[in-house]
């Protein structure tokens, strides 16, 4: 893996420029306004803080401080394990959870860039410049930028290139009959794959499902060619190694399964109506959000045209509404990627050609499967028969996973284009594709200073308080952020505050809010006058008595006056 000093400099400059592309806002505001909001991002930071507590404060790895006294509470949400391993030492140094969270995202960005470069350059054997370009688009892509700002677990996608690199090494060492290195890389893969599942379920599951589709397609295409006998011979010759590979993965998955299978049984996972609701329509393949460069330019052009026709000088505002469906691809990016794979198929022969044919067909299937037409969707079959599919509510996130193979297709196209010596065309297309990733979505809604001050405003906990909940101020649209609905506020505001406080101060809370909640969770609208619900104190006492929590140990934080209150002296 030899690379010249000049190429190293260019590679590192490209990585730095990609960071500036994504983090320029935070740099210019001195990291006071960060990715995310006061809801999902606080939940994420709470779980990252849990891993700090695991490493430095002897907290059990599968038991977070919220939803007390339920066990294995990590299983109600994504685990953020790999992110937590990065976050913990950063927080230990900075003692600032929100800054540590943002720097964790920067570390993941760097991992994604370099791992994709290594995959492209040394596994796929693409050229140096095309590998850099593919890496660059991989970490600045429009859909990942928008969605990861709200759901950090999506960034587990940055570990997928490393998984593919290791898989290729395993295949190589099987062919070379190098048992020691085969064993070593099996362990590497199993460990990282299990860690990815324990970090972010969606992207890890989609990766597994894509590999399964790819293998099925590969066998079918091989069956219709001269390659099928080779596959039969390969499997029969290496069956023991393949079984060992599967076995090591099962062993390393046991911690994940011990937590998440139990919670899947307890909660019943997601109903089909939820998954169907979040299945994309065909036009969502190109849903790039209203603040991508294309709709922004269209909006201003229409405004200018309107002003010219009506002799006015006014530019109207655009309203930003976050949507999970804004996970599609800019048209040129998608077209060039598929052209790259098609061209590769046209130029290759034998086993390599079959690989790219299978890769192409698998990607087409991935784009078709989640789509819905009215009440009809092929995803219902996946939901019904594929293990783990019921754990997926936001099916449209499959498009986010597709960013990875789409960027492989881009690198493939540019590798072909570079060999034709059409440098200016290369630069022109590169410029267009980079411009397509420009996004002005206002995703910097977490005020670092305000969020820290809210926590600091709460006085020290009384010694006798062992478990707590929160009484909140009712929703007031005059003082609450305009982009937050009453329903969101009622579900999240006090509950995520309780989660975050519990992890920061190692104090259990009966409150919390997650992807799945415990079966008797009843802490929405945590107000004393939450009609038609009972007052929050009555609900908390009912929960406490059911779970044998003594009244004398139960307290609450009153966010109306920012103080602790003991239920019984």
Can you describe what's shown?
The protein has helices spanning 5-28, 40-56, 81-94, 97-123, 128-140, 142-148, 160-175, 179-197, 201-223, 228-237, 239-267, 272-277, 293-310, 331-347, 350-368, 379-385, 398-419, 423-436, 448-456, 486-505, 536-546; strands at 33-34, 446-447, 467-471, 554-558, 563-566. It is mainly α. The strands form 2 sheets. The chain has a 3-stranded mixed sheet with strand order 3-4-5. A two-stranded antiparallel sheet has the order 1-2.
Assembly of the depicted chains: single chain
Report the portion of residues in β strands. Answer: under 5%
Question: Overall 3D geometry?
Answer: globular
Give the terminus-to-terminus CA distance: 68 Å
- What is the element string, with H for helices and E for strands? HEHHHHHHHHHHHHHHHHHEHEHHEE
Low-pLDDT windows of residues: none
């Amino acid at each position: 893996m030899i690379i010249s000093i000049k190429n190293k400099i260019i590679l590192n400059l490209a990585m730095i420029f990609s960071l500036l592309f994504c983090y320029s806002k935070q740099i210019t505001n001195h990291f006071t306004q960060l990715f995310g909001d006061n809801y999902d991002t606080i939940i994420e930071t709470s779980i990252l803080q849990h891993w700090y507590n695991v490493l430095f404060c002897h907290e059990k790895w599968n038991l977070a401080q919220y939803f007390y006294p339920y066990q294995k509470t990590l299983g109600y949400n994504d685990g953020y394990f790999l992110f937590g391993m990065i976050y913990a030492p950063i927080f230990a140094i900075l003692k600032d959870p929100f800054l540590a969270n943002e720097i964790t995202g920067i570390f993941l960005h760097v991992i994604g860039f370099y791992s994709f470069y290594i995959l492209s350059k040394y596994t796929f054997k693409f050229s140096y410049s095309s590998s850099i370009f593919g890496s660059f688009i991989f970490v600045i892509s429009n859909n990942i930028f928008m969605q990861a700002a709200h759901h950090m677990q999506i960034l587990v996608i940055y570990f997928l290139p490393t998984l593919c690199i290791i898989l290729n090494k395993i295949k190589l060492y099987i062919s070379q009959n190098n048992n020691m290195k085969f064993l070593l890389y099996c362990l590497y893969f199993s460990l990282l794959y299990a860690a990815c599942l324990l970090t972010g379920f969606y992207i890890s599951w989609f990766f597994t499902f894509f590999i399964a589709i790819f293998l099925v397609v590969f066998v079918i295409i091989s069956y219709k060619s001269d390659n099928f006998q080779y596959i039969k011979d390969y499997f029969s010759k290496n069956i023991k190694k393949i079984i060992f590979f599967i076995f090591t993965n099962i062993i390393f998955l046991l911690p994940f399964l011990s937590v998440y299978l139990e919670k899947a049984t307890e909660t019943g996972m997601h109903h089909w109506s939820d998954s169907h609701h979040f299945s994309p329509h065909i036009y969502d393949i190109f849903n790039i959000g209203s603040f991508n460069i294309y709709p922004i330019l269209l909006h201003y052009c229409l405004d200018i045209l309107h002003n010219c026709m009506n002799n006015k000088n006014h530019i109207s505002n655009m309203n930003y509404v976050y949507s999970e469906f804004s996970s599609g691809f800019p048209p040129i990016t998608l077209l060039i990627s598929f052209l790259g794979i098609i061209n590769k198929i046209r130029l290759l022969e034998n086993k390599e050609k079959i690989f790219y044919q299978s890769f192409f067909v698998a990607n087409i299937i991935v784009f078709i499967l989640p789509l819905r037409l009215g009440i009809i969707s092929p995803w219902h079959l996946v939901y019904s028969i594929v293990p783990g599919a019921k754990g997926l509510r936001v099916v449209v996130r499959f498009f986010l996973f597709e960013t990875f193979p789409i960027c492989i297709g881009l690198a493939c196209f540019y590798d072909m284009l570079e060999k034709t010596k059409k440098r200016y065309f290369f630069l022109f297309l590169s410029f267009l594709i980079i411009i397509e990733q420009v996004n002005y979505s206002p995703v910097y809604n977490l005020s670092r200073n305000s969020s820290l001050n809210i926590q600091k405003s709460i006085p020290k906990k009384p010694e006798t308080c062992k478990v707590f909940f929160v009484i909140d101020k009712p929703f007031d649209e005059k003082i609450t952020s305009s982009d937050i609905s009453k329903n969101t506020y009622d579900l999240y505001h006090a509950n995520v505050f309780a989660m975050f406080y519990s992890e920061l101060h190692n104090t259990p809370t009966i409150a919390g809010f997650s992807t799945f909640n415990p079966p008797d969770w009843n802490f929405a609208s945590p107000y004393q006058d939450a009609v038609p619900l009972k007052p929050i104190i009555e609900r908390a006492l009912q929960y406490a008595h059911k779970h044998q929590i003594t009244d004398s140990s139960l307290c609450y934080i009153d966010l109306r006056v920012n103080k602790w209150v003991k239920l019984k002296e």
